[in-house]
Amino acid sequence: MKREEVFERLNNVFRDIFDDETIVVKEETTSKDIEDWDSLEHINLVVAIEQEFGIKFNMNEVTSMKNVGEMVDIILTRVEEK
Amino acid sequence: MKELEYPFDVNYIIKNKRKIRKELLLKPGLLEKRIAILGGSTTSEIKNMLELFLLNYGIKPTFYESEYNKFYEDAIFGNEELDQFSPDILYIHTTNRNIIQYPTMYDDEKTVEEKLNFEYEKFKKIWDKLFSKFNATIIQNNFEYPYYRLLGNKDAVDIHGKTNFVTRLNQKFYNYANSTKNFFINDINYISSSYGLDKWANQFYWHMYKYAMEVPAIPYLSFNLANIIKSIYGKNKKAFVLDLDNTLWGGIVGDDGVENLNIGPEVPSGQVYTEFQNYLKEYKSLGVILNINSKNEYENAIAGLNHPAGTLKPEDFIIIKANWNPKNLNIKDIAEELNLGADSFVFVDDNPAERQICRDYVEGLSTPEIDVPENYIKIIDHNGYFEVTNFSKEDLKKSEMYKDNAKRSQMMATFDNYEDYLHSLKMKAEIASFKPIYLERISQLTNKSNQFNLTTKRYSLADIEEVNKDENYIKLYGKLEDIFGDNGVISVVIGNIKKKEELHIDLWIMSCRVLKRNMEFAMMDQLVKKAKERNIKTIYGYYYPTLKNKMVSNFYDLQGFTEISCDEQGNKTYK
């Protein structure tokens, strides 16, 4: 899977979760950039992303990802492992 | 909304909850309720999901949510915010994570017993305290099984086992529930088993976020909870409308002939239908009414229902529509004949096209997405259409009552003059102040009546008990009996005395079973009599229009009242 494709699918998940069609996620996007992205919503986001890509994050990953770019790194590794 | 009925797509709901919420908030006539969630673990998503399912049932919740794991403190020591919130419902979301004193192998029997009582008393104290403070309904989780068994199978049997401990603690909760009104158990023990305990107890979610179950399981929990709440507020379904061919039996009676239908113990596919018929028949004991809606010749339908291996017989049904009319029209006819709203029905049909048409054309109808016959029961059951909260003895006789009504209609047809017909019924009314034995039924009636309901004010059992105790109310119930049977309590009037000589009628309802029997005039006579005894000078009546109560828009005019005001919403005041 290409990095661009991951971004595109990820972007759709974000738009659904936050019900905002204007969201465009980039490498450096963090929770500060999206109003409703708090720690509680982060859980739902993780669940939805796991579903979308058929993967599971481990605990360290969930707590350590600093921005969307790092999230995409993990997704790509997981997808390749499959 | 189909997306919020079982079987639902959890990922869709979690991903689209904001969109779904927005859409549901547009529904007219939402009933507002205040719900306090007192949690022993994270409750955020439980609240969000509960909101969706309740909105789908026409209930708009506002929430109070305790701080993380502050259920005990909030209940026992109080909390100003909670006090001011004045909840209608208190939901205590605790799980086996909130059990502090589990037994150990070192404990003797007495110590285990003490631990059990310690845990139980902790909760009992919470409930008693909340009941003393709030005029509210409490919903309490029982406990799910532990996710590991130190003693293996003996964990269930031995008093030192956690599984055994949880089972005994749950039993104590049930005893409390059985002896306490306005207290209900949210059975997460069952829901977690049905969902799959290993998945439910996915410890990732506990350690990461302090959720006591995995996030994808939350919709199942919240749905289960929403079913209890909608039932308390009288939003249960009341009746089945059932297809015949390939729904109640295998095969098509008109083509295959009765003798070739698939039903009975001989073959597996026949057993499935027998079991489904048995399941439906059990609902009669809950007061759920069975009806038929089938594209068939009437004779063939009856012949099929008389199949010797079938357990449902023609007399088990109130209305049988076996014809070639569109099914959505049949459902509307059935609703009209029974005097029920279309939203009271569950339509069961194996044909997805028929389901879709009826779903599209009959507003409020529930149409479960059944698939293969062996799943019919599971899918209907898990939808919680008929969740039992307040069961009154009248429910046992409901089917008979509807039958009596059908007989009355037949008899009416034999009279030219309506007055003569009324005389022939030899009606006997009993109108009196509330009595304790009827309070349950009275509360039920205030929540179920939509059409003959002047103010559509809903009263929980707790509310009715309050009114009953309060001397500033005149409260009447009416029962009606005739040659065909006893209709039970069918009308309720509550008047509030203000300034010593004014009576304000807060509630005036009557069951549609007894429309056009002049019962309302008898009730009014009695009310006026009672008012005179209390030296009331003026009686005020109110009519608040809803989508369903148009039939009583001129009720007070007919009773000889004078309209004194009418606002833009059509809310009228009479004197």
Secondary-structure element sequence of chain A?
Answer: HHHH
Major β-sheet profile of chain B:
7 strands, mixed
Number of domains of chain B: 3
Structural class of chain A: mainly alpha
* CATH superfamily descriptor of chain A: ACP-like
Shape of chain B: globular
Report the principal-axis shape of chain A. Answer: globular
Number of domain units of chain A: 1
Side by side, the strands of the main sheet of chain B go 10-11-12-13-14-16-15
CATH architecture of chain A: Orthogonal Bundle
CATH classification class of chain A: Mainly Alpha
Residue fraction in strands of chain A:
under 5%
State the secondary-structure class of chain B. Answer: alpha/beta
Mean pLDDT of chain B: 93
The overall pLDDT of chain A, averaged over residues, is 92
Find the CATH superfamily of the largest domain in chain B.
SGNH hydrolase
Described by strand count, sense and barrel closure, the largest sheet of chain A is: none
Q: Report the CATH topology name of the largest domain in chain B.
A: Rossmann fold
| Residues in β-strands, percent of chain B | 15-25%
Describe the protein's topology:
The complex is a heterodimer of chains A (82) and B (575).
Chain A: H1 3-18, H2 39-53, H3 59-64, H4 68-81
Chain B: H1 10-24, E1 31-39, H2 44-56, E2 59-65, H3 71-76, H4 80-85, E3 89-93, H5 109-133, E4 137-141, H6 162-178, E5 183-186, H7 188-195, H8 197-200, H9 203-209, H10 218-232, E6 239-242, H11 253-256, H12 268-282, E7 289-295, H13 298-305, E8 319-323, H14 327-338, E9 345-348, H15 352-361, H16 376-382, H17 393-396, H18 398-412, H19 418-424, E10 428-433, H20 439-448, H21 461-469, E11 473-482, E12 485-498, E13 502-510, H22 519-533, E14 538-543, H23 555-558, E15 563-566, E16 572-574
Parallel strand pairs in B: 1-2, 1-3, 3-4, 4-5, 6-7, 6-9, 7-8, 13-14
Antiparallel strand pairs in B: 10-11, 11-12, 12-13, 14-16, 15-16
